[in-house]
Design brief:
The chain is an alpha/beta fold. The protein has helices at 29-33, 43-50, 64-74, 83-88, 101-111, 159-169, 178-184, 193-202, 219-245, 284-293, 314-322, 353-362, 380-383, 428-441, 462-472; strands at 2-7, 14-19, 22-28, 57-60, 95-98, 117-123, 130-139, 145-154, 249-253, 272-274, 303-308, 327-330, 332-335, 344-348, 372-376, 398-400, 416-418, 420-422, 445-450, 476-477. The strands form 5 sheets. A 6-stranded mixed beta sheet has the order 18-15-19-14-12-20. A 5-stranded mixed beta sheet has the order 3-2-1-4-5. Helix 5 packs across helix 10 (284-293), helix 7 packs across helix 9 (219-245) and helix 11 (314-322) runs parallel beside helix 14.
């Protein structure tokens, strides 16, 4: 039985295909349309999905009736969207089942985890009405999922809306640039924590923005304050989740799960952690299926999208890197999620600050923006302040570097790095490249950032890769 999951209509459109419990395909609309955060579907993406067969059932990621009611109460325009009519415009026919926004988030996380039971904490801006939810999930021997709802917060009380409002306040783009706000926080002082906390506790509706708040405030100080407030509230939610569930396992989902600086606090409350690599709305195309079918899924890899065929270009990439060049890699199936994990990556030498400046210039990013290192898992504890068994295959945690001055291109102002660890099993090609680079240079890691420029989606196809190479003068190997 072939099941489709669809998340579309608001932002970050995506489509997933599951047969039985195998995830066959999952991708983002923006990769095909080349429009960042594209809310709609795309015919080319649909054609790829159809190559696996016609869907027997289609799961929509939220409840359009409740969504319309919330928009009405919030005074928003364009209140009603008819998913059946919308899908028919793309030629998609068949039985359609509506889901629930937070349940799709939660199920995407639990169904792709290895847990038999777990606490599931979802934090985002807003779904239908729910903005934060705590549940206890479990599965039986047949793989059927059960959910016990324990606690929720509803609109307009929203930690996600708060963070997005401050993103807008510092003249960045809400629902897109929150990760930039997180990066800015290292450069400011948290001078506005008390005022922001008071606004949160008073029921201030951040959905309407706060552009007139904090007059004359420095943008970096606002970022530092917002991050501090977010972390304080996040710690409270972690404590509450632990108390309510009594579980050792945590699944964290929702767009706020991408705040990897705050995620360092999770281990104080839970022994085992799973953050699905696409925890925001785009990941809910998978979640809609898992929630609608109450079914565990066989999660093997985040490489689920468009395929560029061929062996991983270890030799070609290494040749460029040994010349101290930046090199793009576009190979295999594209990552499902917002972070490049080796298949649509820009790679570079991490030992020089000038390399960080050059890559930021090429990508047209702000100079303060940090980059991530990718390193073999067996090496990570030697260079970062982590335990030997530390894993971070999806760049979801910030850790301290042991020798930040030696690798300035991948260390932020606060001495931290958003590490990606790699094993041979997770990505044999990237693992071989790291092994060869270390053998030739003694450097155990590479700078890894997404193969795109600021404001554009990641490269998807070989055609996109050729265009990137032509426009920006960076060799892209496949």
């Amino acid at each position: 039985m072939i099941k489709w999951g669809v998340a579309a209509g608001t932002h970050d459109g995506s489509l997933a295909v599951v047969k039985d419990n195998e995830i066959l395909f999952a991708s983002h609309t923006e990769r095909y349309s080349r429009k960042k955060n594209d809310a709609n579907l795309n015919q080319e993406m649909i054609e790829q999905a159809l190559s696996y067969g016609q869907p027997d059932i289609i799961h929509w990621y939220e409840d359009p009736y409740k969504k319309a009611l919330r928009k009405y109460k919030a005074g928003q325009p364009n209140k009603w969207m008819n998913p059946r009519k919308y899908l028919s415009e793309y030629g998609i026919q068949g039985e359609i089942k509506y889901g629930n926004h937070h349940e799709s988030h939660a199920a995407a996380g639990f169904a792709t985890s290895k847990f038999d039971s777990a606490a599931v904490l979802v934090i985002d801006a807003i779904g239908e009405f729910t903005t934060t939810s705590i549940s206890l999930y479990s599965t039986d021997e047949s793989g059927k999922i059960s959910r016990k709802k324990l606690c929720k917060r509803v609109y307009p009380q929203s930690l996600g809306l708060f963070y997005s409002a401050i993103t807008d306040r510092v003249q960045l783009k809400a629902n897109e640039d929150e990760y930039i706000l997180m990066g800015m926080s290292a450069y400011g002082e948290p001078r506005h924590v008390e005022e922001m906390s008071a606004m949160l506790s008073s029921g201030f509706n951040f959905h309407r923005g706060c552009r007139n708040s904090f007059p004359q405030a420095d943008h970096f100080d606002l970022a530092a304050s917002a991050q501090r407030v977010y972390e304080q509230e996040f710690i409270k939610l972690l404590s509450l989740t632990e108390t309510l569930t009594k579980s050792d396992n945590l699944v964290l989902m929702g767009g706020c799960a991408l705040n990897c600086l705050a995620n360092r606090h999770i281990s104080k409350f839970f022994k085992n952690i799973w953050v699905m690599p696409n925890p925001g709305d785009a990941g809910s195309s998978i979640g809609a299926i898992a929630a609608g079918e109450r079914q565990m899924l066989n999660w093997k890899t985040p490489y689920l999208g468009e395929e560029i065929k061929g062996r991983y270009p270890v030799k070609e990439a290494l040749s460029e890197l040994l010349e101290n060049n930046i090199v793009g890699v576009a190979n295999g199936r594209a990552e499902f999620g917002p972070r490049a994990l080796g298949n649509r990556s820009l790679l570079a030498n991490p030992t020089g600050k000038e390399m960080q400046d050059l890559v930021n210039k090429i990508k047209q990013r702000q100079e303060f923006r940090p980059f991530a290192p990718v390193i073999r898992q067996e090496d990570v504890h030697k260079y970062f302040c982590v335990e030997k068994d530390f894993e971070s295959p999806y760049m979801q945690f910030i850790v301290k570097a042991k020798d930040p001055e030696k690798y300035p291109a991948i260390v932020h102002k606060d001495g931290t790095s958003r590490v990606q660890t790699v094993t041979k099993e997770q990505h044999a090609g990237l693992y071989r490249l790291l092994t060869q680079y270390k053998k030739h240079t003694g450097t155990p890691m590479l700078m890894n950032t997404s193969l795109n420029i600021k404001g554009d989606p990641m490269v998807n196809s070989r055609k996109d890769a050729d265009l990137f190479q032509k426009r920006y003068g960076v060799k892209v190997v496949s």
